[in-house]
Structures are given as C-alpha cells and as structure tokens.
Amino acid sequence: MYNELNSNRIELIKGDITKLDTGAIVNAANSSLLGGGGVDGAIHKAGGKRILEECIAIRNRQGGCNAGEAVITSGGLLKARFVIHTVGPIWNGGNNGEDMLLENCYINSLKIAEENHIKTIAFPNISTGVYRFPKDRAAGIAVRTVMNYLRENESIEKVIFVCFDEENHSLYSKLIDKSA
Ligand code: ADP
Predict the structure, then answer these.
(1) Which of 18, 103, 105, 134 has the CA that lies 20 to 30 A from 92?
(2) Are residues 162 and 13 in contact, defined by beta-carbon separation less than 8 angstroms?
(3) Residue 89, ligand 1, Cβ within 6 A
(4) CA angle at residue 156 from 110 to 105, to 5 degrees?
(5) Which residue CA neighbors atom 23 of ligand 1 most closely?
(6) How many CB atoms lie within 10 A of CB 163?
(7) Is 35 in the pocket of ligand 1 (CB under 6 A)?
(8) Is 128 near ligand 1, meaning CB less than 6 Å away?
(9) What are phi and psi of 167, to 5 degrees?
(10) Closest ligand 1 atom, CA of 131?
(11) Ligand 1 atom nearest to CA at 164
C-alpha cells in the first residue's frame, strides 16, 4: 500500500485516508460542512462527533465554506491531529473556473496547515468522486500545485497523495515519477 517516491517531500499511497497518522488529513467536504458521502462520510464516521461539532461552530461563525476555501478542525478520534476541510469545485464542463478553484483547494489547505505548524499533510483526490472532475486533469492540477507550493515554502515537510482507486493511483504515479 505504501510507495515512497524519489521526490522526498511527496509520497503516494493507495488506501484509506482515515487511517493515516499525519499532522493533518484533508477532507473533500461540501460547502455546508455538515458531512456527506465519499471521503467526507468516511472521515466523519471514523473521527466521531467532535469533528462535526467543530464544523457546526465554524458554520455558525462564517456560514459554511465556498469552493476553493479551507477550514480546520481537530482530528477527533482519528490518528491525524487535524482535519482540513476544503470544498472542491463541482465539475461543470471546465469553463466555469473549475481548474482555478481546485488549485485554490490545494493552496489554501497548505496555507492553513502552515499557519497551524503542521509538518505532514495528506490529500485525497479532491472533486474526482461525486463532483465528477476528470481524474487526469485533477491529478495534473494537484501535483503541479503542490510541487510549486513546496518549492516556495519550506515549512511543510511531507505531502502525501492518498488515492482510493487504481485509476487515480496510476495517474499520480506517472506524474510524480516524471517530475521527480
Ligand atoms: P468530491 O465530492 O470532492 O468528488 P468524493 O468523496 O466523492 O468527493 O471523492 C473524492 C475522492 O475521494 C474520490 O477519488 C474517492 O474515490 C476518494 N475517496 C473516497 N473515500 C476515501 C477514503 N476513505 N480515503 C481516501 N479517498 C477516498
């Protein structure tokens, strides 16, 4: 399940993000922050009610979360200390700012991680499930955005891409191998 790659601040894993003991795992949330299916459901199920309570508190303060933005809660019962909830764009043909919004998800999640002194962060393949973003295009954006960010920012030591399905895992392996 574990596959370390040449570029030493980026790793690729195939598996369930809720099992990781990184400083933070990222949740592909929806704008309500109240939980949903896919990775969001899995994180809330494994992390327990504290995560949802903190999401509700954030909602009460700021009224949910727009696509491209990120908020942070504790990790509840998870091994990860924090969960960073970011809202991916819903794919709508590709000419509605989807690429930039997806890029913002990665950048804003990394920024909030840095602000909280988090050294290791794991990302799922944001928007590639129910939100239907094409997987190859999303993988390209994810890898490029994270690599650019790491090049310019020292404080995050490791980013782990967690792929749940074989198609994403294979797309990410090719991209990361190529740029390593
Ligand atoms: P979105 O609404 O952003 O598309 P989804 O949760 O539907 O979010 O899917 C995002 C990605 O997360 C998909 O590639 C899906 O296969 C993956 N995924 C689902 N469950 C898990 C999990 N437990 N760990 C890691 N990735 C997961």
Answers:
(1) 18
(2) yes
(3) no
(4) 10
(5) 16
(6) 23
(7) no
(8) yes
(9) -60, -50
(10) 4
(11) 26
Residue 153 Cα to ligand 1 midpoint, Å, equals 27
Atom 19 (ligand 1) nearest CA? 39
Both structure tokens of 28: 């592909």
Domains and CATH numbers, the chain: 10-179 (3.40.220.10)
Q: What's the 164 CA to ligand 1 centre distance in angstroms? A: 7
| CA 76 to chain centroid | 17
User: Which residues are known catalytic residues?
Assistant: 40
d(CA 137, ligand 1 centre) in Å: 16
Tokens 């090049």: give the residue. 151
Question: What tens digit of pLDDT does each residue of 155-165 get?
Answer: 999 999 999 99
pTM of the model: 0.96
Question: 26: closest CA among 140, 156, 176?
Answer: 156
DSSP E strand stretches across the chain: 2-4, 10-14, 24-29, 70-74, 82-87, 120-123, 158-163
